[in-house]
């Protein structure tokens, strides 16, 4: 998992430098694990039912944000592939 996260970070950095990072992807935090830890850190010190619920809600919100961004990125990529396929068939 760590290797994948390092590879993801390397590619994101490279694409960001080239200005090729999609708008949706650029809005996501560079490290999702750090983002979740930021949400959890203040709550970990006090362990009660309300804190657990707040922490879970925060984690769920972050995960949902990533899922939505990934869906938008996939949809845009699919649309781009469709256009490329159409154009390649048109110019054969």
Describe the structure.
The chain is mainly α. It has one domain (2-90). Helices cover 84% and strands 0% of the residues. It is built from four helices and no strands. It has helices spanning 2-18, 23-27, 32-44, 49-90. The longest helix is centred in the C-terminal third of the chain and has 42 residues, at 49-90. The mean pLDDT is 75. Keywords: Plasmid.
What is shown here, in short?
This protein has 92 residues and is mainly α.
N/C terminus separation: 43 Å
- Uncertain segments are none
Number of strands: 0
Q: Look at the helices and sheets and give the structural class.
A: mainly alpha
Output the radius of gyration: 18 Å
Helix-strand blueprint:
Elements: H1 2-18, H2 23-27, H3 32-44, H4 49-90
Essential attributes:
plasmid, elongated, mainly alpha, 92 residues, single chain, 4 helices
């Amino acid at each position: 998992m760590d290797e994948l996260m390092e590879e993801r970070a390397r590619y994101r950095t490279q694409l960001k430098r080239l200005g090729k990072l999609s708008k949706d992807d650029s809005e996501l935090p560079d490290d999702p694990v750090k983002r979740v830890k930021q949400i959890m850190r203040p709550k970990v010190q006090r362990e009660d039912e309300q804190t657990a619920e707040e922490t879970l809600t925060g984690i769920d919100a972050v995960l949902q944000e990533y899922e939505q961004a990934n869906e938008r990125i996939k949809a845009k990529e699919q649309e781009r592939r469709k256009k490329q396929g159409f154009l390649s068939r048109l110019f054969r």
